[in-house]
Design brief:
Length: 491
């Protein structure tokens, strides 16, 4: 194990130096970071609750922190491997595995988070350079027979260990996790699983980056102003201004941010059709962002991995141990919802089709849905729903959400402006229980911006942990891509 980790660490350090990232100094936000003589990823944070010092972190800090973290992870695993089977305890095996490589794990979490919400070539290159190697390091621990023998021995005598319910559940989770990741497979199968995991780590990152870049660079040109009928004067002005910026003053330019508004309001059906087809094919129409080949490769790798692990499909592998547990369980859970929602959706589609049939006999198509749904809502509620945006301002929606949490669960949120963030628009709140006890921090990141991956997601920068003497509170992240800004009513 020791020699293989050293070789992996040396290769990773060489790769990072080879692409020139150790010399990079790109800050993570526009403001000037606070100067620091030490790598902020390698020293304890002095921010409240030990929150990450995003105001001090540069992209160039990650390579050094990852190599150092891998060195410490190697030492942690070697210590566990040195435990004699007869001396194995929950603390020196499971507890030690839980603590192993904590610095590396924290650095990986921060890198993944920043790649998602900040982006930028430096962070993406670091992530794609390190992800396969770190996947390989994790697999070497999973497939190490000494480690699994210790975990298995504890699992077999678990009822005699005097563990409380939490520790017992943790032991079962570790044991089942090792089996699910391939600890019982043959050496040849484990080698192939490791190769698959490395490839998927890289391919999934590139797949997401292709979607991001294709969306950010999407443009659709309109030459005839008559085709923009239905759009407000302010929208037309914005499209014309963008065309001037691209040195095409004779046209109007639609970007991804304009897509839903144009599809809902443009009365020219041919425009909507062309825009719909161009936008939905932005990663499948050739060029550097085409994801068709990558998608096929990822799906094939998933299927091969599932079958190596004894499953017929990747869905069976991915859902194991969750609430539904099997694909059939998912169907049984969702089918009642599908029936109820399907009936309502079918009714609305019929009403939209009726609007479409006014003097026409053509079938409702995907590029008609936004437009006729907007008309249906206007007819039903007697006003343009776009006006509701002025009342549903992001800050008011946020406050309403917090009030509901307080009424239902007694949790109240306190705004913290002393917690460093990686973008000025991210807001941090301290969650407190009824008695004033701090439960953790919430990083609320609601708005779209260049470099940020599309979609809504929740995650964590740190999970709750305790060593018996002190505790680390959870740092939870919520990310979305609203186009509004606090207080402007344009969400």
């Amino acid at each position: 194990m020791n020699a293989s980790f050293r070789a992996l660490r040396s290769a990773l350090a060489a790769a990072l130096c080879g692409i020139g990232l150790l010399m990079a100094s790109t800050p993570l936000q526009a403001q000037t970071p606070v100067p620091t003589p030490e790598n902020p990823l390698l020293v304890p944070s002095d921010a409240p609750f030990g929150a990450p010092r995003f105001d001090r972190i540069h992209a160039a800090d990650f390579p050094e922190a990852i190599v150092q973290g891998l060195r410490e992870y190697e030492a942690d695993i070697d210590s566990i491997c040195a435990v004699a089977p007869e001396a194995a305890t929950f603390e020196n095996v499971i507890g030690a595995l839980n603590r192993a490589g904590r610095k590396l794990r924290d650095t990986q979490t921060l890198l993944s988070y920043l790649k998602t919400v900040v982006g930028g070539d430096s962070l993406v290159r670091i992530y794609e350079t390190t992800a396969p190697a770190l996947s390989r390091a994790s697999d070497r621990t999973t497939f190490d027979p000494k480690i699994f023998a210790l975990v298995s021995a504890l699992h077999q005598k678990r009822e005699q260990l005097g563990l409380d319910s939490l520790a017992l559940r943790t032991l079962k989770r570790y044991y089942n996790g090792y089996i699910a990741r391939g600890a019982l497979r043959t050496p040849a199968e484990q080698q192939r699983l490791s190769q698959i995991n490395e490839q998927m780590a890289l391919k999934r990152s590139r797949h997401g980056q292709n979607i991001l870049r294709a969306t950010e660079n999407f443009v659709f040109f309109v030459r005839d102003s008559n085709r923009l009928a239905g759009l407000s004067p302010s929208v037309r002005q914005r499209l014309a201004r963008r065309a001037w910026e691209l040195n095409r003053p004779w046209e109007w330019v639609i970007t991804a941010g304009d897509y839903s508004g144009v599809m809902a309001n443009a009365s020219d059906r041919s425009l909507r059709e062309q825009l719909y087809k161009a936008f939905t094919a932005r990663c499948s129409s050739g060029g550097e962002y085409d994801n068709r080949e990558l998608t096929a490769e990822i799906l094939n790798l998933r299927l091969e991995k599932a079958r190596l692990l004894g499953y017929d499909t990747y869905a069976e592998y991915a859902i194991r141990g969750n609430m539904a547990d099997t694909p059939q369980g998912v169907r049984e859970l969702l089918l009642p919802l599908l029936r109820a929602a399907g009936a309502k959706a079918g009714s609305e589609i019929a009403q939209m089709q009726a609007l479409r049939d006014e003097g026409r006999d053509t079938q409702l198509e995907p590029w008609d849905l936004y437009y006729y749904l907007q008309r249906l809502h206007t007819e039903r509620y007697g006003s343009d729903l776009r006006q509701a945006g002025y009342y549903l301002q992001p800050d008011k929606v946020r406050d309403g959400m917090f009030q509901v949490a307080q009424r239902l669960y007694g949790i109240w949120m306190l705004r913290r402006t002393d917690i460093p963030v990686c973008d000025p628009e991210i807001q941090v709140f301290e969650a407190r229980d009824r008695d004033g006890t701090t439960l953790g921090l919430l990083y609320l990141d609601c708005f779209a911006r260049k470099g940020k991956l599309k979609g809504a997601a929740t995650g964590s920068l740190r999970r709750y942990s305790t060593d018996g003497n002190s505790e680390a509170l959870p740092l939870v992240t919520v990310s979305a891509i609203s186009r509004g800004r606090l207080g402007d009513g344009s969400s």
